[in-house]
């Protein structure tokens, strides 16, 4: 199959297909006498796997380690382990994003609750002082103080 047909079937651009080939995600293919690349039929499946994996958050390097040279030789254990690691990474990212969202919502609430008679500069000082007090609370609650990143 020529690259144009492969691009049409997968929805990928020809340049992207050539890029995947240059990155070693696709095996180098032979050329026909006219110079056109000729891809085997299973290349479409490989490209769809690469595209799906990228959409799921896998890097090209991760994909490279997952894809066997021959699709009939999948390492089931390695595949499952890698997918589990990616799920754990996504869960950790979701937790960090949820924490960031909560902090931003609290900050927005503080900023929006500015009394009508307060200037923006005074409100900024008010909000910043609350943030500083909030950042010190865990130290005061535990009795620990940090010096150069070490608890004392």
Describe, in plain words, how this protein is organized in 3D.
Helix content is 64%, strand content 3%. With 152 residues, the chain is an all-alpha fold. The protein folds into two domains: 3-74, Multidrug-efflux Transporter Regulator, Chain: A, Domain 2 (Orthogonal Bundle), CATH 1.10.1660; 114-152, no CATH class. The protein has a two-stranded antiparallel ribbon with strand order 1-2. It is elongated, with a radius of gyration of 27 Å.
What secondary-structure arrangement, pairings included, does this model have?
Blueprint: H1 3-10, H2 14-22, H3 43-55, H4 60-66, H5 76-112, H6 120-142, E1 146-147, E2 150-151
Antiparallel strand pairs: 1-2
| Shape type | elongated
Structural domain tally: 2
Structural class: mainly alpha
Number of helices: 6
Give the biggest beta sheet.
2 strands, antiparallel
Percent of residues in helices comes to 55-70%
Strand content: under 5%
Tally of extended strands? Answer: 2
Low-confidence stretches: 144-152
CATH class of the largest domain: Mainly Alpha
Order of helices and strands: HHHHHHEE
CATH architecture of the largest domain: Orthogonal Bundle
Strand order of the largest sheet: 1-2
Concise structural overview:
This protein has helices spanning 3-10, 14-22, 43-55, 60-66, 76-112, 120-142, and strands at residues 146-147, 150-151. The protein has a two-stranded antiparallel sheet. The chain contains 6 helices and 2 strands.
């Amino acid at each position: 199959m020529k690259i144009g047909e492969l691009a049409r079937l997968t929805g990928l651009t020809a340049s992207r297909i050539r890029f995947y080939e240059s990155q070693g995600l696709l095996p180098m293919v032979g050329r026909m006498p006219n110079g056109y690349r000729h891809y085997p039929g299973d290349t479409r499946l490989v490209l769809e796997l690469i595209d799906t994996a990228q959409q799921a958050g896998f890097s090209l390097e991760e994909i490279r380690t997952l894809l066997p040279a021959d699709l009939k030789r999948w390492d089931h254990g390695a595949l499952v382990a890698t997918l589990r690691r990616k799920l754990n990474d996504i869960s950790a990212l979701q937790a960090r994003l949820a924490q960031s969202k909560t902090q931003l919502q609290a900050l927005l609430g503080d900023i929006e609750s500015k009394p009508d008679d307060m200037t923006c500069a005074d409100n900024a000082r008010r909000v910043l002082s609350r943030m500083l007090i909030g950042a010190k609370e865990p130290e005061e609650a535990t009795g620990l103080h940090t010096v150069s990143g070490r608890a004392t």
